[in-house]
Design brief:
Keywords: Signal. This protein has 449 residues and is an alpha/beta fold. It is 37% helix and 13% strand.
Length: 449
């Protein structure tokens, strides 16, 4: 589950300001390609070591190596998400052992940027591929004029729902607003139906996205002034969102089970949940987990994410990965060529979306007839890309992440646990979260504005 960053061990001090003064700045030694998972096609070419965990990486790497004579990828799966990040952090501290290119989730970039562990790719032609991505996708990998990674996939959010549950309990159309969502949840529960959705504590990235959708700006941060940060977690938008979901949970209109567990997937299969608020990669994950192959096959559909104000819709994102060049790369020009070109060719992107491995952010795919008109089998032939996911991806305006995403997610998770159990209110949780994060930021050497 590459999107569940909260599983990553807390690297609090390593991701704080105290660590940035020891950043490598390029003087370290990258992990030299010695043993590769893949075949090197051109032995005399410059070898670039890559850490990545996409399920179809073997095919992607072969596509790249077969198409390039000047540079070759030596790929290793150093772990999926959290394990890889921990190894990378160890390499940063040791000033040796990092790969030349590394796959990172977008919300983790700033934590490594502040340590000077990543290379600004703008001098290496990053902007040559800028037009292939939406402004929001590009914002997620940029700091001012600097570009610290190349986007590959994303997670525009929408609402998956069970058509059989909706029909049984008289929900004639997917809710367009969160007020309609709450009304439908109450109607289904009053009739003896299942949970309308789930607000698991182990997906704080979802809660954050929903806060942003309401108008919250949890963090304002610019690497140009890396000692300064604005934290705004006790604003009305954040309070409203936490109160809304906490209210649904305490009224038992939704579940509070951790997602991505065996029990949760069993519940999805058995119709325990009428909806699943998730990202564009969810169909691939659910299919891989065995959902949609039994009695529930053909009973799933997807609709746009409900809005707080339907007249002013806001698109938000959950997840998405990038390729970044590490400061320890021995040949940064070659590494940048890999970061820009890996998983960017037509064959790899096509394999990625057809196997539901990724939701690509490359506009060459998003505008292609095959992708746009694809009838998604999981959604019983619905043209979900054209109708739901592509508009959401292109409308996404980007987000601002803090240098301590992992610590923040852990604290938000703890507050959601208390909200769901009725031990605190949404308003109090937001206030407490603000106090915790301000104290933590100051302890790490930041000036909180």
């Amino acid at each position: 589950m590459r999107r569940l960053v909260i599983a990553m061990p807390l690297l609090s001090l390593a991701l704080g300001l105290g660590a940035c003064s020891g950043g490598d700045g390029g003087g370290g030694t990258s992990a030299k390609p010695t043993t590769c998972t893949n075949k090197i096609v051109h032995a005399d070419a410059t070898a670039v070591s890559v850490w990545a965990w996409y399920p179809n990486m073997a095919k992607v790497v072969d596509n790249f190596n077969n198409a390039h004579t000047d540079v070759q990828v030596c790929w290793t799966n150093a772990g999926q998400g959290a394990p890889e990040y921990a190894k990378f952090q160890t390499a940063i501290s040791a000033k040796k052992g990092a790969p030349d290119v590394i796959m990172l989730e977008a919300d983790q970039l700033v934590g490594f940027e502040i340590q000077e562990a990543l290379v600004d790719l703008a001098p290496y032609g990053a902007n040559d591929v800028k037009a292939k991505f939406s402004p929001g996708a590009w914002k997620d990998v940029s700091q001012g004029a600097a570009v610290y990674a190349i986007p590959v996939d994303g997670g525009p959010m929408a609402m998956i729902y069970r058509t059989d549950v909706f029909a049984k309990y008289g929900i004639k159309a997917p809710p367009k607003t969160w007020a309609e969502y709450a009304d439908a949840a109450a109607k289904v529960k009053a009739a003896g139906g299942p949970n309308f959705g789930d607000f698991g504590s182990n997906v704080p990235a979802v809660a954050t996205a929903l806060m942003i959708q309401k108008g919250a700006h949890p963090f304002t941060y610019d690497l140009a002034a890396k000692q300064d940060i604005t934290i705004k977690l006790d604003d009305q938008a954040t309070k409203d969102v936490l109160t809304y979901w906490g209210g649904l949970a305490t009224r038992k209109l939704i579940g509070t089970e951790d997602q991505f567990t065996t029990d949760y997937i069993a519940g999805v299969v058995n119709g325990k949940y009428a909806t699943y608020v998730s990202a564009a990669w969810a169909p691939g994950y659910l299919t891989g987990a065995g959902v949609g192959s039994g009695a529930e096959k053909g009973k799933f559909a997807v609709a746009p994410l409900p809005q707080w104000d339907n007249a002013a819709p806001v698109s938000v994102n959950w997840g998405g990965s990038t390729f970044a060049v590490t400061a320890q790369a021995s040949d940064k020009k070659a590494a940048a060529e890999v970061a820009k070109g890996l998983y960017a060719d037509e064959a790899s992107l096509t394999d990625g979306w057809k196997t539901q491995t990724i939701f690509p952010l490359n506009q060459d795919v998003l505008k292609s007839d095959a992708f746009v008109t694809n009838k998604v089998e999981f959604f019983n032939g619905q043209t979900a890309n054209k109708d739901i996911y592509i508009p959401a991806a292109n409308a996404y305006a980007g987000a601002t992440y803090s240098p301590f995403t992992v610590y923040y997610y852990a604290q938000l998770q703890a507050q959601i646990v208390k909200i769901n159990s009725g031990r605190t209110t949404g308003d109090q949780a937001a206030t407490d979260l603000q106090d915790i994060m301000v104290k933590y930021a100051k302890s790490q050497g930041f000036t909180v504005r």
